[in-house]
Design goal:
Elements (H helix, E strand, L loop, with lengths): L6 E3 L5 H8 L8 E5 H7 L1 H9 L3 E8 L3 H12 L5 E5 L4 H14 L8 E5 L7 H7 L6 H14 L4 E3 L5 H7 L5 E4 L18 H7 L3 E4 L1 H4 L4 H13 L2
Parallel strand pairs: 1-2, 1-8, 2-3, 3-4, 4-5, 5-6, 6-7, 7-8
Helix pairs in contact: 4-5
Bound molecules: the ligand O=c1ccn([C@@H]2O[C@H](COP(=O)(O)O)[C@@H](O)[C@H]2O)c(=O)[nH]1.
The site of ligand LLZGTKA7 has 17 residues, from strand 8 and helix 10.
Length: 237
């Protein structure tokens, strides 16, 4: 199975704060996640800087639009040379297939295409919220499995889900389908806006392929130490 370092969510408002955070990590090369907050302020130039420092990049823009728009957007994103990108599975099979075609066509000849994964249900969504707001009348696990199957059948590499759903996805889809799991909390507490949370140890036990950790590292008193301790726990697998 492909092995990923813990992915640090760089949820910062600008380049300066991002780089001063990263400077604490000395020579360590990281797998970082650039999301909407940061990318919408900095654009491709920050991606170039992160690459020049040797970091791997998950560009987490969660595309969700009509197939043609997603196709063209992915074609452009492929040129950035990032390692992983994503869409919302709720955009449907045609949209996901269009995303994959765009990525394949946009990837420079001889380079590896970025991994493409799809968000099933956000880790900030509870079963109750899914039922009352999205009017999806199944269990949360069934909805996530449905989106995971749709994603797999559309030819993508994996999904974003909580580690709580990693096992059921393995049972029905298997390897090498990737499960990227945010909602990681060091004490498993429902901190902030997350609803489906898991500790790094539990995520490992449950079969997560990659954990995404934001505020537990970025807001800690010693981000470097916190990251190293999470990494050691994760690599003990
Ligand atoms: O379902 C999802 C999809 C993406 N995210 C992103 O992961 C990080 C989590 O940050 P924390 O501070 O560790 O909560 C954040 O960038 C989200 O946009 C997610 O949490 N859940």
């Amino acid at each position: 199975m492909k092995s990923f370092k813990p992915i640090i969510a760089l949820d910062f408002p600008n380049e300066q704060e991002t780089l001063s955070f990263l400077n604490q990590f000395r020579e360590e090369t990281l797998y970082v996640k650039v999301g909407m907050e940061l990318y919408y302020q900095t654009g491709p130039s920050l991606i170039e800087q992160l690459k020049s420092r040797g970091h791997q990049i998950f560009l987490d823009l969660k595309l969700h639009d009509i197939p043609n728009t997603v196709y063209s957007a992915m074609k452009g994103l492929a040129k950035l040379g990032v390692d992983m990108v994503n869409v919302h599975a709720a955009g449907g099979a045609n949209m996901m297939k269009a995303a994959l075609s765009g990525l394949e066509e946009g990837t420079e000849h001889g380079k590896e295409r970025p991994l493409l994964i799809a968000v099933t249900q956000l880790t900030s969504t509870s079963e109750e919220q899914m039922k009352t707001e999205q009017l999806i009348n199944t269990s949360l696990n069934e909805s996530i499995l449905h989106y995971a199957r749709l994603t797999f059948d559309s030819g993508l590499d994996g999904v974003v889900c909580s580690a709580l759903e990693a096992k059921i996805i393995d049972q029905h889809i298997g390897y090498p389908f990737i499960k990227v799991t945010p909602g990681i909390r060091l004490h498993g507490d429902n901190l902030h806006d997350q609803k489906r949370v898991v500790t790094p140890e539990k995520a490992r036990e449950l079969g997560s392929s990659a954990i995404v950790v934001g505020r537990s590292i970025t807001k800690s008193d010693n981000p470097y130490e916190t990251y190293m301790s999470i990494k050691n726990t994760w690599e003990a697998k």
